[in-house]
Amino acid sequence: MERPDGVVGRRLAQGRDHAPHRGPRRRPRAGGELVLARNAITRLADDAADIDLVRASQRLSLIASELQEGVMKTRMQPIEHVWSKVPRMVRDLAAACDRQVRLEMVGGDTELDRSLLEAIKDPLTHLIRNAVDHGIEPAAERVAARKNAAGLLTLRAYHAGGQVVVEVIDDGKGIDPERVAAKAVERGLRTARQVSAMAPAELLQLLFLPGFSTAEAVTNVSGRGVGMDVVRTKIEAIGGTVDVESVVGRGTTWRLRIPLTLAIMPALTVECDGQRYAIPQVSMLELVALDTGAAGAGGIEHVRSAAVYRLRGELLPLVDLRDVFGAPERPTDASTVIAVLQADTLRFGLVVDRVLNTEEIVVKPLSPRLKAIGLYAGATLLGDGRVSLILDVQAIGRRCMGVEVVDAERSATAADAVHRETVQVLVAGIGGDRRVAIPLAVVTRLETLPAAMLEHVGGREVVQYRGSITPVVRLDRLLGSMVTDRDELTVVVSTRGDRSVAIVVEEIVDIVDDDAAAHSDLGDHGLVGSTVLKDRVTELLDVRSAIAAVDPLFYAEAPTPGSGGLTPADMVALTALADAGAHDVLAGGVR
Amino acid sequence: MSRQLATFVLDGARYGVDVLKVQEALRSQVRTPVPHAPDGVAGLVNLRGQVVLTVDLRTRLGLEPLAADAEPMMVVVQVDGEPVSLLVDEIGDVIDVDDEQFEAPPETLDPALRDVILGAYKLETGLLLALDVTRATAA
Hints:
The structure holds two protein chains of two kinds.
Chain A: H1 5-14, H2 26-47, H3 51-75, E1 76-78, H4 80-83, H5 86-97, E2 101-106, E3 111-113, H6 114-135, H7 139-144, E4 151-160, E5 163-170, H8 177-186, H9 192-196, H10 200-205, H11 228-237, E6 241-247, E7 251-259, E8 264-272, E9 275-280, E10 284-290, E11 301-303, E12 306-311, E13 314-320, H12 321-325, E14 336-343, E15 346-352, E16 354-362, H13 368-371, E17 376-381, E18 387-391, H14 393-401, H15 408-412, H16 414-417, E19 422-429, E20 435-439, E21 445-450, E22 455-457, E23 460-465, E24 468-474, H17 475-478, E25 488-496, E26 499-505, E27 507-515, E28 527-533, E29 536-541, H18 543-550, H19 568-590
Chain B: E1 2-10, E2 13-18, E3 22-27, E4 41-47, E5 50-56, H1 57-60, E6 73-79, E7 82-88, E8 90-98, E9 102-103, H2 111-114, E10 117-123, E11 126-131, H3 133-137
Domain CheW-like (chain B): 2-139
Protein name (chain B): Chemotaxis protein CheW
GO cellular component, one term (chain B): cytosol
């Protein structure tokens, strides 16, 4: 398992280890200051009419970038410097834990800032210990599970999107989300009610809570109470993230995402209530500018009090930065921009007033007195010399969404649906004090239309909706409820491909989690059963037959990707397919 | 034993801090507010490339805020190796005081203030209140 000599030779030839250590900390700071000064001058030159000044500033900008790059390069070291001790460590661990472990290391030449290498050493060691001790099973157990007696531990490093990703992958027994949930309840970290509402991916996130350890037996190697929370804290301290994926029986992947360097990072500056804030580019997915006044078309919608935005057919939960800061409401005529952010597995939209610029910012440490607030990752100086706070996207996401967060992205993936016992449903009143639940997955939009828009094609009611003729389902008539005529129709639009159906309800009540286990098969024509939601008996709408009644071709056409118009039945079918595929791939990989 | 205190004025009263803790005194600068910061935190300022926390002593000491048009001054002190800027009304002289002139704060002082005011030096020109910088800047 020792590294071939050639590698060591190359490392020495690079000679970075022998670079003089004089003032290694001073250099990047000066580099950072240079970037700041460059930013300041660029800003001044932008406002200036003097063409020579603009040219000089552009030249300075170029040189500063080159110099910055050069300075950074001298600090970069391949990650194999940290990995070099891993083979020995794994061998010792395997012997101590009585495991057979094969080690593979991929991408050892991936380079990282020296100070960051230092910082990830401990977390990496912890993850490796954990993988050998708890991940990989004893040989006998593996053979019984028809796996190779020797477990495979893979370390992989690669560059991705301005970050370095380091993965610790084992093909061991995996982490059972149910056990994680049980443990979290037992430790009093979450209530049984909370965990029952969580998706498996969210349950695995509980591993990072302080005071969590699933190790049943405390061994010499791990399970001494120093848990994944320490790993997370250490990685987040250097601006990185940790996440975990696991399939029971097949293995676990721990993934560290680490910024290339500490000193400087690209960030987006935004304005909120007259103040400027920086959002690390790493967390940014995209920006959505909202047309003011056009709230009806593509604006912010509300599910009760929770603001959401429909981003290409998926509901994106929104957090208004003004609300986070307790700032006054945004004037209605003010511009609004949604920054779509990714934090851990949460995806959410941060609503800000204005986007200003992308800038390379130099991270300045924040006074410890302000760290407790937990909303800021640091501070920086902008081009005009003013201090600006760097938002801690993870913390804001966690704080504003808590455990109730619906991981929009993950819930849409088929793989998730199979484990998921709870499905989000839209609860609507249909008159006569009756309530029906419609799976949120089939809901594309909620609209209020004037009743005058109803027209007839033959015996059917239709509306012109977004330029096409859309058939209308009257739930009150379909389900034989009391019919009340109104001037305005509350409509749930379901879209699949380019076909839409408008389902008329009396009122939208709420969006809640529906636990499939609590279902009763007590139903009627047009229903698939009933359940109790929010202490009220709620009928479960048979969406498929309700829609097919007015548009038999609705399910005939292949949906366009990302239309989000899958029924739960479709999802399960897809899941089965995806699952089967995954088995084959994994099985092939193990052999 | 005698020591030197850097003095400043808040709402007409004179306060002093150990001169060795004072880094500099300067005009106030543009402050960046910090939402959800503890009471008394007046924002962050850029002090020659360093981001420095500013504490409004008036708020800390339970005094009325300074009039909107008045411009406060900043006294930058070192607390636990970190510079912290204190907002004050006016900056005074550095004064030599003697331990014999010192007296603990009176029993009648507001308990919230007893925490941050070490005591008073009885000078001929009036009382000089000694401030506990660490406590006054604690969140």
